[in-house]
Structure formats: structure tokens, C-alpha cells
Amino acid sequence: MIRFALQGILGRKLRTALTAIGVVLGVALVSGTYVLTDSISSAFDSIFTENYKNTDAAITGKSAIDLSQDEAAGGVAPPFDQSLLAKVQALPEAGVAEGGVFGEAQLIGKDGKTIVFGGAPNLAFSVTPDRPEFNTLALVSGAWPAPGEVVIDTQTAEKKGFQAGETIGVQARGPIQRMRISGLVEFGQVSSIGGATLAGFDLPTAQRLMDKEGKLDQILVAKKDGVSEQQLIDAIQKVLPEGTQVRTAEDQATADAEGTSGFLDFFRTFLLVFAGIALFVGSFVIANSLSITIAQRTREFATLRTLGASRRQVLSSVVLEALVTGLLASVVGLFLGLGIATGLFRVFDAAGLTLPNNGLVFSTRTVIVALIVGVLVTLLASLRPAWRATRVPPIAAVREGATLAPTRFHRFRPVGAALLAIAGVALVVVGLFVDGLSTTTVLSSLGVGVLLIFIGIALFSSRLVRPLAAFSNPVARWSVLILTVLAWPFFSLPYWLLRRGVWGPGSSGRRTAGFVLGAVLNPVLLLIVLIMAVRRRAGSWQPEWPADFPGVLPDRPATEIGGQNSKRDPHRTASTAAALMIGLALVTLVATLGAGIIKPFEDAVDRIFSGDYAITAQNNFSPLPPAVAQAAAAAPGVTSVSSVRGGQAQAFGETIFITAVDSQAAGVLSFDWQAGSQDVLGQLRADGAVVDETYAKDHNLQLGSSLPLQTAGGKTLPLKVAGIFKPPAGGSPFGNVTISTTSFDATNPQPLNVYSFASMQGGVTAANTAALEQALATFPNAKAQTREQFKDAQSDGIRGLLNVLYVLLALSVVVSLFGIVNTLVLTVFERTRELGMLRAIGLTRRQVKRMIRHESVITALIGAVIGILLGLGLALLLAARLDEVSFAVPTGQLIIFAAVSVVVGIFAAIWPARRASRLNPLEALQYE
Amino acid sequence: MEGYSEGTTSVVRAEDLVRVYGAGDTEVRALRGVSVDIAPGQLTAVMGPSGSGKSTLMHILAGLDKPTTGSVKIDGTDITTLGDDALTRLRRKHIGFIFQFFNLLPMLTARDNVLLPLSIAGQKPDEEYFTDLIDRVGLADRLTHRPAELSGGQQQRVAIARALVSRPTVIFADEPTGNLDSRTSGEILELIRASVDKYGQTTVMVTHDAKAAAMADRVLFLADGEIVKETGKTSQHEILRIIDTLDLS
């Protein structure tokens, strides 16, 4: 039986390959994800370890509150006094000790704009020229900076055309300064991390630029010979003032890496979810292909049974075949994953987000997980078809046209499917609406619920095929007509002209003219036709020329039969469509949620922000120093400027995001007050606080309640609640607690604005825009935007994320495309005799192709309709639960998705239709 | 109608057909120079044992296969030089088929199956002729049934109606009774005979059934790729005797 199974695979190479594509792509994404994240992680590890290779202990500032995330990013922990350095250097255990500062500094390009790659930060470091071994940056060329000089990273230099010796504009917390570039540096061994720009200065220059005169962010210490690391740490511990901490170099590297490894874990899980989706879709394709193949092999199994094979042997031969297919597919997918990882590195690089990469890391874990997942998915998908194969009775061997008998559970199938879907909906509802579940429980009940819904609907949808096919039939005809008309001038016409040009008929003058026109309209086809000409000359291929002038009108008779064919085997059509349904349901869900987030966000901006202009960083989210707002306020025509500061603080034992507003706020910001009034905003003073509704409810706060707030600086503010507001549904720009700028600045050494809003005489005008831009000219990182521009810029991030999701979901749509190809190829194979008859009684090759294309498009549309409705339903559930999301149907996008489905149908049909049209009617008639 | 060329009385004319499959050692000469004229309004039977080349001859006459050398003219058009599309269009207009395994489309009703050739060619049925045809083949009360709901004989009646519906120049029937019991076979043969008599439908029938050949106006006997004997209307007994003497069984 083993040999029988293996020969089954060899004998059906093509079908096996088609079946396996779903698994190959899914496994490739799994393995690609691991390779990518492992490689990034190993590169980061080496960077962080490298940073401390000559260090034994690191002293850093310690925030009064837990800021582990931000601390790793470098610098929210407050700096400490420089005097500590002398104390540490004086310790007998300490060898060398160097102090440093870091933060952000923008480099200004030759066009006068801040240099930003993607949304990456602009990092700044102090460097010690005479102790390069302590430097975070590695010198690539030139020299370390003298006072007033700067070193920049090689990427910035290369992409923006800077060389050592030139001057470059640098801006940290003050105005721009022109500095001479003394040399080029890299971060560890990579030219860049995530597109961040790097700037290095000598310590005094760095301190001055970053407003940290007399302060340090970090002291690195090397021990004296003969002293243990622990002895050094203990010694340092004794001289440490309040607000500082010491760690071994190793611990410090780990702490630094924490932020990135947290992000990488998220990134990995995120990508794996999509790999899982692709595999799930792939399992539908496998199950469906195997079912069809097994139905076609009925006589073969029956013959085996008459020869004495037991049901068990039939079962194991099918399962074994699946197992081997799964294994082969997984191995191919595993290596394809290396390609995917390389490709993703390139993509991010092209997008300006260079990821650190010290070579691909292909770990054993990757191999094991990829193989197990791939084989398991294939195996599970094969169980039902394999079990069906065992139901073939031996008598089928001698009966003409024997089919699989319906199983005894057949009549329960719709009920079972419906129950499965209902159970899935119930799980989703429980996950969403039952309070007090842990995040893991919520996520797993949502995941399993959606999975059950998909399976249930896929099984049930065979009941929907007839009505949906009837509905899709005219839609398919019209959409294909429209697409054909659109593609006609670029594909059909040039193809015809080119072929005619090469092979005639017609006068040579007209043929040449047509050939040239065709080549201009589509140069790619020129290449294809030339290859055809070469093959023809070589005698290896005989084309069917001349071809008819390409028409666009739908072929009624051909589409009529195609439409009938799509209804022939509802189970087959349904399970083929189900694969596409999953992808489309998820894409619709994403699009609907995206629209549901963006729209209320824009509403919220309109409601809250009554100023004319918003002032933000070039990348739309980096906080800006208060000097920017002051410059804007000085512009002619500005009536008021109000800024919102942002930061973290601790209250009631937890870290929260807080904001601060100034006395002008009442004029440009409007709150939806539940208690208190707009006037409160201008009168917060030293102890007033405004809190949002939920926070007030959670902590039982009323007007006048006391709210002790511990700031990052370590001071506790004795606040009183002066107002309670209802944050807008689209996301609030305000923290849980909003205090006055005065009290915020009093406890934050380096306050930053998250938004500034300006109102101007005459509102938004070209002159006003110019005046504001003029005022901001000294701050290249700041830009003024109108309210509309601000809304677009702020929702761009969400749109970008949506696009990433679309790209990842596109993979499962591709898998389902192969599913349709697979079904069609198997169907063509099965209907060989029928196709022969149709050709004999007068169906042309082109009509055969259109017939199959129509069936394919209808199948795709059935998947699209169910998928879109399902996606909308899931989005409705989520929107009902999440306050931040409203339910908005993105009609335009849904039409695009439906059109994409039609294109998927057309593409899936290309190859099967070619095969079908090439069938010799004679062979078809003799085919048994 | 373009009509027949001057002085011809045949609708199908084949000249010196040779068909060779394979090359070298595996070369098979299925036809070794067959010339035949099919007269209009006649039922012609082609008989011969398996491997005699009778199926190959029919496929070439119907434009489904191409001869290695020789020519076939249908209604005056040389079909051996036509491209696939032109040949397909010629089949629509001039040729009807009746198959051994009926070859109906399972998802279409009997009515739609009968009308399929017209539908493919984008033509409207002539209602009067269609009604008459359906009556004649005895399907009036079966038109809404699908093939799976019909007996073998009924399915073959649908197939015959399908071949007749476009009033083709010639119908080729490939072992039309090969898959039917003897009583049903008789009925089907009567029907084919009747369509020749009533509509003047030129028909070529390939068969190895002497009873079927006895219904024909003319019988061609093929052996080893050559026409070895030709008779006019002959009794079943006589046909069996000829087969016996030619050692064609």
C-alpha cells in the first residue's frame, strides 16, 4: 500500500503540486517570519552587546515610575548630575569611567528640511574621541568630532549627499546650528537601524545641544585589574545618589534590548497570525482538491477493495499520500521562507526602514516548527476525504459512472454546519461582550469562534450556491465585459496586431504598421510574440493562426454553459469559493474597521480642535520643544497658540499618560463636558486637573476629589479634579489626566508638546499659511498644517497599517486563487468527454475558454459575496463592542474587493481554460 | 446555401485518404487510400471489425482528425486545409453527431440539450420544426427532464434530436446502438431510418452490428484500412454472409 500511495503522487505530479501550493505558501510565511525576526533579533543583540564590550558597569538615571519601554528607547529617564562622574572615577575599584548623554537631534538636509527616513527617529549621542571603545557609535571614516563638530551616519551622508568636511544644520532643543562634519559613523556594525539618523558630538557640545548642561544620561565604567565585577558594582552602589542605578554591562545590554525584543515578539506573533490564516485557507484548498481527486478515483479504490484491500488500507494509502505531499510542500515552503525573509529586508530597506541584518539566521526551531505545522495541516485536511475514500464499495469497480454514495450523516450536514457557525458566533460574542475575561481567553475565544464560523459557513454554503450563482451570473458577465473593455487596448488588440504582424495575413505594409502599433501598446507582449516566433521557427510548436479580431462582447452560449456548470456540483463550488471567502471576509473586516476608526477620528478632530492650524513634527508624531510654539505665536496675524504637552505619570499605583494645556486652551480646544465647563481649561493653575469619564468612574472621582499625581521627576502634585469630560469616540488626544502647563513644566525638566494649535485672523488663507511657515523656518522639524491636512496626516498611520494588513491578507487570496485553479483543472480533467462533445458540435476554442472563465468568475464571486457579508457581520460585532470604532461601510473599497475577486477568477481560469481548449475533440471522444 | 459544385451528387467526398499514426517501428497505417462519396439523402453504414479503420475514417470525414494525405470535401469545401476555428464553424453548420455514450450535458434539461447546437451557434430554433422533431423522436413529455432522469434509449433520442436540430448536411453516428439493449436498439435504428426518409437527412453510421447495417441504403465494408466491399441495401442475413466470406469477424 505504501508503494501504491507513493506511485499515486508520482502519477499525479501536477495535481499534487497544485494541491500543495497552499501549504507551501503558508509554511513559507511561517519560516520567513522566523528567519526575519531571528535575524533582526540577533543583529540587535550583537549591537547591544557590542556597545558594552569594554564596559563592566553602567550607571543610568532611574525614573521614579516604571518606564521600562521608554527607557530602552533611550532617554526618558531623567539625567543626573555630572558630579557623579568624578566620584566614580575616584573609586579605587574603577579603572576608566566616561559619561555620556543621548537624545534626539535633527539633521537638516540641503533643502532646508529635516532629514527623516520613514517615520524613524533622529538619534543623538555624545562621543568621547579619546576613548572610542566606550562609544556607541563606530567611526567609519574621518575623525571624531572636535567641539562644535558633528559626526553623522553613513546612510544619511550617502542618501542626502553629505561628505566629511562639509557643514550641516543640526537642531536639538534650540535653534539650528551649522556644524562641520568631522567624520561618518555607524551604529555598531549596521549602517542604520530602522532608518534612524545618527548624530554624534563631543560631550560638552551634546550637553549644550540637548539642554543637559552639567548632566549625564549614562556613565560607563571599566573595572581595574584584579577587581571583580561585583566588587565594582558594590563600590559604585555606595556613591550612587537618588534617581540613579547601576547595572552590569550584561544586564544593561539586556535592559536595552528589552524594548526591541518586546517589539520583535509582537512583530513575530503578528506575522505568524497571517501565516496561520494562509495555512488555514491552504487547508481548504487541500481538502477540496483531495475530495475531488478521490471522487475521480472511485473506481480505482473500488478495484483495490475487490483485490482484497481493507478499508483501513485504503484510508492509510490516502493519508500517507497526504503526509508525503505535506512533507514535500513544507520543505519547499521552508526554503521559500528564506527568500521571503530576504525579500522583506529589501522591501523595508526600499521603504527607508533599514532593518539591522548581520546575515540570515536559520535556526533549528524554524525548521522544526515549519515542518510540523505544514505536515499537520495537510494531514488534518486529508482526514475527511480519506474517510470518504473508505466508503467506496467494491461494486463501484464494475459499475459505469459510479459515484460516492452519500454518507449516513449526509442529511445532518446542513444542520451540523449551521450549528458550527452558530457556536462560532456565540464564542465571538462571549469573547467580546463578557466582562472580566483575561486577554488570552478573549483572544482565543475570538480566534476559535471565527475559525468555527468559517468552517461552518464553508460547509453550509453549498446550500447557497444555486441562488448565489444565479445572482453572480449576470454580475460575472457584466464585470468581465467591463474589465475586457478596459484591458482591450493594452492586451487583446496589441496581441492580435503583433501576431498578425508576424504571421499575416494581409499586405506587408499594413502588417508592419500594425506590428509597430502593437509593440508600442504593449512591449511585454512583443517579447512573448517574438519568443513564439522563435519557437515556431525551431519547429517545436505550431500556433493556430491566424486568429480572429478580438471582440469584447460576452459569448452568450459559452457563458450560459459556464453558468450551468457552476451550479452542477454545489459542494465543490462551495468549498472552492470558501477559500476565497476567508480572505475576503478578513479583508472586508479590516477595511470596515479601518473606516470605522478613521471616520470617528476625523469627527473627533473636528469636534475638539477649533483652531485654524496645527503645528506638528515633520513625521506627524514626534513631540516638539516649546520653543516652536513660541515662534509660531510671534507670527503676524496669530491670535492665539495653544499647546498640549504630553508625558507619563503615576497615580493610584499605575502609570498613565497625562497631558497639559495652557491658559489659551479654552480658545482653541473644546471638550465635551460632563462636569465643569470650558472656562475650567484656562483656570487649572497649580492644582487643577481635568480627567476623562472612564478614569473618573474607575477611581470614583468627582469635582473636587483629590488626585495625587507623581510625575516622572519624582515630585507628587496634590491635584483636585476641576472637570470631567467625555472623550470623543474616535480616540482622544488627551491623557487620562490633564493638568496645567505650569504645573507640568514645574516637574518635567524637558517638557515637549505633542500638538500645538494656532488660531489666526482671517482663518486659513495662503497669506496666513505663509506667515506661519515663515515663523517656523528656524525649526525645520516643525510644520504647520490646516485642519484638513492635519486629519489626513494623522490618519495616514492607520491607512499605512491597513495597507500592510492588505498585503499580508493578499497572500491568502493568492492561495485561494490556486484553489480555484486546482478545482478547474480537476474539473476539466473530469469533463474531458463532455468538452470533446461540445467541441464536436461546434464550440470554438475561444468559447471553451470563455465557458471555463465564466465558471471561475462565478465561483470567485460566490466567495466574494459570502466573504464580504461575513466580514461586515464580524465588523458589526466588533464595532458594537469597541467604543473607539464605529460601524461604517466602506462601499468604494468593497466594490474594489469584488472587482479584485473577478480578476482572481479570470486569472485562475487562464491556465485550466488553455488546457481545456487544447483538448483534441477526438481524444476527448475516445477518452474513457 | 452555396449548393454543390457542378455535376456532383455527393455531399461528402473523400479522395485517397491515408492516415498513418506514429513513425518507424511503431508506425500504424489506419487508412491505406480510401476514396468514398456519400450521396445526399442516404443512410450509409460503415462496417468492419475492430482496427479496420472505420472509426478513423469517420473521424476524418467529420473533420475531427486530419488525414496524412488525401482530401475531404464537405459540401464542396476542402476541410483538410481549414484552421481550427473555421473547422469548428463548418461543423456547426454542416455536421451532426450521434455518440455511442450519448454525451449529453448532465445539468441541462432534454430540451436545452437538444437546442445546444443552435445555442452555441447563436441561432434561434425554428419552433415548427422543433415541435415536429420532438414529436418524431417521442420526447414531448420528457423535455423538462435531465439526462439522469432518462433511460438510455431516451437519452439517445435526445442525442438524435440534438443532431437533427440544426439540419446539418450530414450526420455521423458512431455505434449509436453500442450501449443499448436489443429492443431499444431496434427503436433507435428505426428512428434514424425515419429521419433519413422523412427529412432526407444524409447520415453515415459506423457500426459492427449487422442488424443496424441492414437498415442502410448502402454498406461499406472496411478491413485493414481499405474498402474491401460495397453493397446497396442488403438484408441482415446477406451482411452476415459477406462478413463471414471476407473473414471480417
Task: Sum this structure up briefly.
The complex is a heterodimer of chains A (928) and B (249). Chain A has 928 residues and is α+β, with helices and mostly antiparallel strands.
Can you give a write-up of this model?
Chain A is α+β, with helices and mostly antiparallel strands and 928 residues long. Among the domains of chain A are: 57-261, no CATH class; 468-543, no CATH class; 555-611 and 788-928, no CATH class; 623-780, no CATH class. Chain A contains 30 helices and 24 strands. In chain A, the strands form four sheets. In chain A, strands 4, 5, 6, 7, 8, 9, 10 and 11 form an eight-stranded mixed sheet that branches. Chain A has a six-stranded mixed beta barrel with strand order 16-17-22-19-21-20. In chain A, strand 20 (706-711) and strand 21 form a beta hairpin. In chain A, helix 8 (249-296) runs parallel beside helix 26, helix 10 (311-350) packs antiparallel against helix 11 and helix 28 packs antiparallel against helix 29 (891-918). Chain A is elongated. The two termini of chain A are 26 Å apart. Mean pLDDT of chain A is 83; it is low at 67-75. Chain B is α/β, with parallel strands linked by helices and 249 residues long. Chain B has a single domain (12-246), classed as Rossmann fold (3-Layer(aba) Sandwich). Chain B has eight helices and ten strands. In chain B, the strands form two sheets. Chain B has a six-stranded mixed sheet. In chain B, strands 2-1-4-5 form a four-stranded antiparallel sheet, covered by helices on one side. In chain B, strand 9 and strand 10 form a beta hairpin. The longest helix of chain B is centred in the last third of the chain and has 18 residues, at 182-199. Mean pLDDT of chain B is 88; it is low at 1-7.
